[in-house]
Prior knowledge:
TIM Barrel, 36% helix
Amino acid sequence: MRKPCIICVAITGSLPTKANNPAVPITVSEQIESTHEAFEAGATIAHCHVRNDDETPSSDPGRFARLLDGLRSHCPGMIVQLSTGGRSGAGRERGGMLPLAPDMASLSVGSNNFPTRVYENPPDLVDWLASEMRVYGVKPEIEVFDLSHIHQAARMNSDGRIAGKLYVQFVMGVKNAMPVDRDVFDYYVKTVQRLSPDAEWCAAGIGPHQLTLNEWCVATGGHCRTGLEDNVRLDRNTLAPSNAALVERVTALCDQYERPVANWRQAREILGLPLAITA
Length: 279
């Protein structure tokens, strides 16, 4: 049997609003309901941000705690990954939810340009976030916006700053960062396999590139990220009705390429995460 494909659903993010698509879940209760639908459709990782009541990004550990508790209750076994990204906080505030001990958290190991600003990830902050993840038993997902980020993650893994085998995600299609380029994608895969042969990898395509990256990943043995954080449309003329609908597109690709969709037990085994969830 070919390796099962893990599907991550990025449910909200910090940018899309209900003005972009009414299906974008903003409140904690909306996020839980939307994630549950995506879980039933085949997603086994939930990548999570939280919002304030006015839809602005938040780093409030209390909101993260309510979301984490709700997902563990309504989506038993699903891997919950909390974002430490820079849009919802500054400095160590970005890791304020790590003591909640989610299964995973995102970790950007270097800086790069975003559409209107620099996404700053200075070495001292990266090292602090990585150390907090080790303290609380949180597995990092390495967010790769540049080739150098793969090399840095491999160094951090080799010297013990990142524990266990790497899980690396290529992010392609962000304006002013890495474009969607098949030669670059293939070289990213080759570089991960060379520097960290036991690593698992996936990719996220932003906006209309989401489906393209989904197909490249499924076809070449990687895992997939989808969801309304990255893309609010099924096509140019049609808004996605839900996160679950975007997950269903990936499961259809898995059928097309004869790859099984990983269930939550398989996803946890592939990523080296415990099957039993502790509070």
